[in-house]
Amino acid sequence: MATVNTNVGAMVALQNLNKTNEQLAMTQSRINTGFAVASAKDNGAIYAIAQNMRSDVAGLRAVQQSLDRSISTVDVALAAGEAISDLLIEMKEKALAASDSSLDTASRDALNEDFKALRDQITTIAGNASFNGINIVDGSNTSITALADADGTATLTVSGEDLSLSGSVITIAATGNISTLTNASGMISTVETSLQNINEALARLGTGSKKLEVHSTFVSKLSDALTAGIGNLVDADLAAESARLQSLQVKQQLGIQALSIANSAPGTILALFR
């Protein structure tokens, strides 16, 4: 049947061309964005899963920053502790020299001045061993806590060490001196005790720093794994999309030609009336 009122061929050609155009637009969007699933319209379930994983990755970035701050704070504390340990070794040397009964008063006074300068330096070092406003060796903070998971429900804590004078670690008094033979003799054991205490404190701080670094490495690897997983879910295969683009462009041109042929079909009816 030949008719000019209803051109079924043109309708079919137009439907196929519209479908090709939709597929072409989707392919172009994937190439432009790099995502096979760029919005919930593309694939609601996959988009929701990817967004949840992105939330975890963002949380892990905050965890990493928290761990980095804590590691730096503990490392500063370790540096201070090591410096104080070195000072104590020098102080022991001064005290031992001053305990010599054959030493004259002037020499002992000179040793005492050196000893007091070293003693006061301990306070200076402990007071300045802060990072981002946190100091865990001057007695102002008993510990430092870092985030451990993306939900904020787990934490890692490193205990502080009070390295100030007259404390539990440094037992030397703030007025300790070796100005007399008696003071010098008694100070030797006091310095030795403090030296042993601070070395134990350094061991604890070192263990705490290592714990933070191990977890930081794990968090970094976990974040990378999640990021890779998100990519597997939503990233477009650009090589495949490029090939698909060329195929759809050919189909689009053929569809336009098919529609043109279908639209010209009613014109053949004129031949019947010649």
The portion of residues assigned to helices is: 55-70%
Summing up helix and strand content along with how strands pair, one would put the structural category as mainly alpha
Order the strands across the largest sheet as they lie in space.
Answer: 1-2
Number of helices: 5
Number of domains: 2
**In the CATH hierarchy, what is the superfamily of the largest domain?**
f41 fragment of flagellin, N-terminal domain
- Measured on Cα atoms, how large is the radius of gyration? 39 Å
Number of strands: 2
Mean pLDDT metric: 90
Note the beta-strand portion. Answer: under 5%
Largest sheet: 2 strands, antiparallel
Low-confidence stretches: none
The CATH architecture of the largest domain comes to: Up-down Bundle
Q: What shape does the CA trace take? A: rod-shaped
CATH topological fold name of the largest domain = f41 fragment of flagellin, N-terminal domain
Distance between the ends: 18 Å
Secondary-structure element sequence?
Answer: HHHEEHH
Q: What is the CATH C-level name of the largest domain?
A: Mainly Alpha
Question: Could you walk me through the main structural features you see in this protein, from its secondary elements to its overall organization?
Answer:
The protein has a two-stranded antiparallel sheet. The protein has helices at about 10-35, 45-100, 105-130, 180-235, 240-265, and strands at about 145, 155-160. Helix 2 runs antiparallel to helix 3 (about 105-130) and helix 2 packs antiparallel against helix 4 (about 180-235). The longest helix is centred in the first third of the chain and has 55 residues, at about 45-100. It has two domains: about 10-35 and about 235-274; about 70-235, f41 fragment of flagellin, N-terminal domain (Up-down Bundle). The chain is about 70% helix and about 5% strand. It is mainly alpha-helical.
